[in-house]
Design a protein that fits this description.
Blueprint lengths: L1 H13 L2 H4 L12 E7 L9 E10 L5 E7 L6 E5 L4 E3 L8 E5 L2 E6 L3 E9 L8 E13 L4 E13 L7 H11 L4 E2 L4 E6 L2 E7 L10 E4 L12 E5 L2 E7 L9 E8 L2 E9 L6 H21 L7 H14 L3 H31 L13 H18 L20 H15 L8 H7 L4 H24 L1 H4 L8 H28 L1 H26 L5 H18 L14 E2 L2 H9 L4 E6 L4 H11 L2 H10 L2 E6 L5 H9 L7 E5 L6 E2 L6 H5 L4
Parallel strand pairs: 11-18, 12-18, 19-21, 20-21
Antiparallel strand pairs: 1-2, 2-8, 3-7, 4-9, 5-8, 6-7, 9-10, 12-13, 13-16, 14-17, 15-16, 17-18, 20-22, 22-23
Helix pairs in contact: 4-9, 4-10, 5-10, 5-12, 6-8, 6-10, 7-12, 7-13, 7-14, 9-10, 12-13, 13-14
């Protein structure tokens, strides 16, 4: 309907001036919204401002539009012709009304209204100078059935003078100014969860607020026709409504209506918003359960399971020493939980500072990947028996008896490399954490760490489970060597990821640094076998390799290679495809996300899926989040998610449908007829 209105306006303006004004298109030839230009002072003072106004008066049954007209309509456009030394500022609209027509929300004025603007006369304009003000104004006049583009050439003849204002003019402009939104004076915050926009607005408890409605100044924030739920909570006004499809994110300006043509102009930025009291605890508990379950699932990752196995072997070595076993388990759990809290706190701080960051932000930095590559390489060679970690002077081995300090840092490493791969139950929990108050959000991040550490803690605190572990013996050394294999594979995966982020030169640099580190560790192992040290020198060498590698990493990311027939994510392209009635399968992935890669191999990049999509004319759109991408981050936020994977199906003429995070070929082929 908006496009139809634009077309009408454009065609009318291209025709003759008489028709362009559209004043005789219907009825007696008079416009359906009469307009005149008025000035607060007929003699504005040089060097000072005065107010001018478009006084608009719609006929009964007709209405004009606010600057953001909503789902349909057009605001007023003006083109000024001004004398030298005179300037006019931006238009200031009064607080609008809502009008729902055929499921479309319109932001309108159904009675007389005035659009104001500041007029400034330069200080060097001599008194007595004539100031002819000319403006071409065009607007749309509508009923609930038809719309007519209208316009007028308006004039106002002023004279530079002393700025005197007549009593009648002052009363009239004062009345108009009472309908303008006033600056709120405090910043609001908003958050997204599952496609819903939650906003917290500072508003004194004693202040009246009736018929509350939020009018965004720009498109892309809310779905205009959606119901807006407003409630008071102390000195805050909380509003909940549907977010716009493809929510744009960033700072949001809006007018908050709190009465009949009374309202406030506010700015809202992303931040914590309290959940409704009746559902807050339920929301937190559901998200916490999802985080714990997701953490449990992360234990089967190839870079986590070997370390968990080694920790289990350390319990077998400990025998019946319950105190030692439990201390080690608590240290491991403390390392996991502390790291999850640190990552969660850093994420909340980045987002609070306005950065478009999401869960797993640490693996979007190639320097972190290089650090992990060297660390995992060292762990793999330690498990393979090349050297002894005790030689570094760190106190205890990674999984050694009595190693509470080693257990803590082992837990920290596990959490750091495991948490980016959100499990099937973790995506919604992490998305929810980002819209809850800081305390509740950190509790969910801690729940993720608890789930990740829980298997080892249960083994430590349940002797019946631990008694099922095999007795210590020579087999433990062989198992430790076997566990080195998935760690080497993890190192290769990190090198590949480095190449995906910064190209083949970065992968070559990473593999070269890992090879040099292996030579240093071999040298250390040889010295340890002869009873000598050298761990400090190797540590310094490893730090030098890391620093040099970080400095030499390429700065630019290579072009993303997509699957055959797929197109890169573009919000404008998505909107265009949907407007054309095309089915779209949109998915977000990252090379460091194992769940994403598994789904692509098992379901998306399969011949059966491609054939079904091609037959139905489905456009496959891919959002690659391997490197940080603010546009993708904002879109994920709009869907109530903080990380990948995310799979969305857009059937023609319908809203997005979120698919399961575990896909099969039948799941995808069933989407199309």
């Amino acid at each position: 309907m908006r496009i139809f209105h634009v077309f009408l306006m454009t065609m009318a303006l291209l025709l003759t001036p008489a028709i362009a004004r559209a004043q005789g298109a219907f009825g007696s030839g008079a416009p359906h919204i009469a307009a005149r230009l008025a000035s607060e002072s007929a003699m504005p003072a040089p060097g000072k401002d005065t107010a001018i106004a478009f006084a608009m008066e719609p006929e009964a049954g007709w209405h004009g539009y606010w600057e953001n007209p909503g789902d349909a309509g057009l605001g007023m456009t003006v083109k000024w012709t001004l004398p030298k030394g005179v300037s006019v500022g931006a238009l200031r609209y009064p607080v609008p009304e809502t009008l729902m027509i055929s499921g479309l929300m319109n932001h309108v004025y159904e009675g007389p209204y005035a659009v104001l603007a500041p007029l400034t006369v330069a200080a060097d304009v001599p008194a007595g100078t004539r100031l002819p003000i000319r403006v071409r104004a065009d607007w749309l006049a509508c009923t609930d059935k038809i719309c007519v583009p209208e316009g007028a050439d308006l004039t106002l003849d002023l004279v530079a003078g002393d700025g005197q204002v007549q009593r009648a003019d002052r009363a009239r402009f004062d009345a108009w100014c009472t309908h303008l939104p006033r600056p709120l004076g405090a910043q609001a915050s908003y958050a997204m969860t599952n496609g819903r926009l939650h906003m917290a607005i500072p508003f004194p408890a004693r202040a009246q607020a009736n018929d509350v409605h939020l009018f965004p100044l720009a498109e892309g924030f809310t779905r205009y026709a959606a119901l807006q739920k407003a409630r008071r909570e102390g000195d805050r006004l909380l509003i909940e409504t549907d977010a716009a499809q493809g929510f744009r994110g960033g700072p949001m300006q809006a007018v908050l209506r709190t009465g009949d043509h009374v309202g406030f102009l506010l700015t809202a930025t992303p931040g914590p918003v309290p959940a409704p009291q009746d559902g807050a605890m339920r929301t937190v508990f559901i998200a916490l359960a999802g985080a714990i379950l997701g953490g449990l699932l992360l234990n089967i990752m190839p870079c986590v399971f070997p370390i968990l196995g080694l920790k289990a072997l350390s319990l077998a070595r400990a025998g019946g020493n319950e105190r030692e076993v439990r201390h080690e388990a608590l240290a491991y759990a403390a390392g996991v939980i502390a790291t999850c809290l640190a990552l969660g706190g850093a994420l909340l701080a980045l987002r609070g500072a306005g950065a478009a960051a999401g869960w797993a932000f640490q693996l979007q930095d190639p320097r972190i990947i290089l650090l992990l590559l060297l660390l995992v390489t060292a762990i793999a060679f330690n498990l393979a028996g090349l050297f002894d970690l005790g030689g570094f002077g760190g106190g205890e081995r990674l999984a050694a008896r009595g190693g509470t300090i080693g257990s803590f840092w082992t837990g920290a490493l596990v959490a750091f490399v495991a948490t980016p791969c959100t499990g099937p139950f973790m995506g919604a929990a992490m998305g929810t954490a980002l819209v809850l108050p800081v305390g509740a959000a950190l509790a969910i991040f801690a729940g993720l760490g608890l789930g990740l550490a829980l298997p080892f803690v249960l083994l430590a605190y349940l002797p019946a489970l631990r008694s099922r572990l095999p007795r210590p013996g020579p087999w433990m050394a062989r198992v430790q060597r076997i566990f080195a294999i998935p760690m080497f594979l993890t190192a290769l995966g990190l090198a590949w990821l480095l190449g995906q982020q910064r190209g083949v030169p970065a992968m070559t640099l990473g593999l070269g640094a890992a090879l040099l580190l292996a030579l240093l560790l071999w040298w250390l192992g040889r010295r340890q076998h002869s009873g000598r040290g050298g761990g400090g020198l190797v540590l310094l060498g490893a730090l030098a390799l890391l620093g040099g590698g970080m400095a030499l990493l390429p700065k630019q990311a290579p072009a993303v290679t997509l699957a055959s027939g797929a197109i890169p994510f573009d919000e404008a392209r998505l909107a265009s495809l949907r407007a054309a009635g095309k089915p779209v399968f949109l998915y977000f992935t990252a090379d460091w996300c194992l769940t994403c890669k598994a789904n692509e191999a098992a379901a998306i990049d399969r011949a059966e899926t491609r054939a079904a999509f091609e037959k139905a004319g489905v456009t496959v759109m891919v959002g690659d989040w391997t490197n940080a991408d603010p546009a993708i981050t904002r879109f994920l936020e709009g869907q109530g998610r903080s990380g990948v994977p995310l799979y969305l199906w857009y059937a023609p003429g319908r809203e997005a449908r979120a698919l399961s995070q575990l896909l099969t070929v039948s799941t995808l082929t069933a989407l199309v007829p």
